[in-house]
Amino acid sequence: MTTTGATSDPAGLEARPAPRARVGVFGIGLEAYWAQFDGLLERIQGYQRRVEERVAALGAEVVSAGLVDTAEGAREAGDRFARGQVDLVLCHAVTYATSSQVLPAVQAAKVPVVLLGLQPAPTLDYANTGTGEWLANCAACCVPELAGAFTRARIPYDTVAGTIDGDPGGTPWPETTRTSTRPPRAPACRTTRSTPSSGRGPSAGFRRRTAQAA
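-> structure tokens emitted (214 positions)
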């Protein structure tokens, strides 16, 4: 028997690749620092680019807002995320910043947030560390402040801590992979209203409600 023009999947049932999650990524800092500490801006920008590369390597479609260091920049980042219809925002706390460099971006995006507290190195030579070097390595220093701001603003979030290139134990990238490569569920993400879940991270409540909505 011969078949002409036939396909191996006439009913169109062949498995198709799942759509990639669209992930908004931005790093934060404080504009006032750059003139005070030579080379700090360039280092911070380099760390941010590395994080974006790692996120892209996980399989996510990255929508980058770069380094945000002013409230105006945060509003521009939020507009970019909203236009890009991202499913999730990763906020890399590269160095110290206030909530005014963060809230406008995530409020405009209207999706859950993961705060990344990723240091460039696992340890510091504290005896020889000045303020500039500390600022280049204090990725976790403003995470509690931002977490408090998100809680007050009723923005669902999670936190991931570690080093940019991964710790010996494997963190933080396996945890980030589970979050950022989850197949996008845009309608549920953008209409879900969730409240923080005490003791388990606010986005636990978000995941439960999204599953119910689906």
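The two ends are 45 Å apart (CA to CA).
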